[in-house]
Amino acid sequence: MSAIKIETVSLVTTDNKGNNLANYRKYIDDAGANGVQLLVLPEYSSTGLAKNISMNYISAEEKELFEKNAEPVPEGETVKMIIERANKYNMYVAWTMIERDKFYTDRIYNTAVLVGPEGYVGSYRKVHRAGTEKMMFLAGDKGSDVFDTSIGKIGFIICFDKTYPDTVRALKLKGAEIIINPTAWPGLDQRLGKLDLSMQFHRYAGRCRAMENGVFYVDCNLGCNPEDKMNAEGGHARIMTPAGEILAETGWNEEKIVVTADPQASIAEYYQKMGISEEQHLDMLKKRQRLHDKAAIATDVAMTNIRFYGSALCNTLMDLPTAWKVKGKLK
After folding, report:
1. C-alpha span between 166 and 48 (Å, rounded)
2. Residue 239: other Cβ atoms inside 10 A
3. Rounded CA separation 201/195 (Å)
4. Using CA atoms, how far apart are residues 163 and 204, in angstroms rounded to an integer?
5. Bridge partners of residue 110, in order along the sequence
């Protein structure tokens, strides 16, 4: 496989979906004019985020924003619009959007989508939801598929997924060469610069996943406005080789980066530097994944019992005052 031109953008969003999609069109048209073959846009960048968003509580405005702007995939207007442009420019485009289930229309998901010259390629519903996401979106019921495209084999994770090593490992074992990781990871305080721990967690979690699995990695995070100092999006979108080399990286604010690289060649170089074959590496990963699967099953059984008996106990305790009142009236 020859080198491909990859672009990613630390978009700054508004709570107006129309404005965000206009920004999408601008960047897609610009990328297409410059011969980009893969364009990656951040998590939540099509719908945008509510102005008063928090990971600790859900506002009515935030819930309404996501509910109002959810669309089916791939039948929705956003997917159709991006397919039309991807086909025009012979380009792959990846982004996330709020998906409404076609059959159970009260269910919405945080979903990554990939389209290309051939049309709709595939999608992935976020599995590991952070904070208040658990109260708004259902979790995907499986990991990402690996999509075999003309530019390589592509797998998805979304934002907080990258803190779970098994996510990218499972994709590698399915044959993934390129990992696309749309993200809306917040920083704590833009004024801290490189000392901001949350932003650094975002940067190094992705880098670890690339290096331990030997995959080419596109980590695309939302940017923030220069005046947004505290609890703003962390920016620092980056494109990395399997060896963890950062080919390009944005700063805190809206910015694009473009690199020309050969993911397959960089994977071959990774194994040459490591001094092992890909088969040996995959065997190691399979063993690690089997251990993870066993631990996950045991944990699921334990957590199911804790949730069941814990919720039963809590509900009983909360209902005791009512029971005493009823008992008193029955005397």
Report:
1. 29
2. 24
3. 11
4. 10
5. 98
* Residues 38, 31: Cα–Cα separation, whole Å: 9
Q: Using a CB cutoff of 8 Å and minimum separation of 24, what contacts does 188-195 make?
A: 188/230, 188/231, 189/229, 189/230, 189/231, 190/224, 190/228, 190/229, 190/230, 190/232, 190/252, 191/229
CA–CA distances in Å: residue 318 to residues 311, 313, 328, 330: 10, 9, 17, 20
Instruction: Report the DSSP pairing between strands 238-240 and 216-221.
Output: antiparallel
Render the burial of 271-280: b for 16+ CB within 10 Å, e for the rest.
beeeeeeeee
Residue 301 CB neighbours (<10 A): 10
SS3 call for 6: strand
Please, which residues bridge with residue 311 across strands?
none
- Burial bucket for residue 243 (CB in 10 Å: 0-12, 13-18, 19+): middle
Structure pTM?
Answer: 0.90
Task: State the maximum Cα–Cα separation within the chain, in Å, rounded to a whole number.
Answer: 84
Distance CA 95, CA 183 (A): 10
Residues 300-313 have pLDDT tens digits of 777 777 877 777 77
Work out the pLDDT band at 80, boundaries 50, 70, 90: very high
Q: In terms of DSSP H, where are the helices of the chain? A: 17-33, 60-69, 77-89, 165-173, 197-213, 263-274, 278-330
Note whether 67 and 135 are within 8 A (CB).
no
Task: Give residue 331's identity as a one-letter amino acid code.
Answer: K
The Cα–Cα gap between 70 and 99 comes to: 5
| pLDDT tens per residue, range 248-290 | 999 999 999 999 999 999 999 999 999 999 999 999 999 999 9
CA atoms within 13 A on the CB side of 159: 30
Euclidean distance between CA atoms 241 and 59, whole angstroms: 39
Tens digits of residue pLDDT in 140-172: 988 999 999 999 999 999 999 999 999 999 999
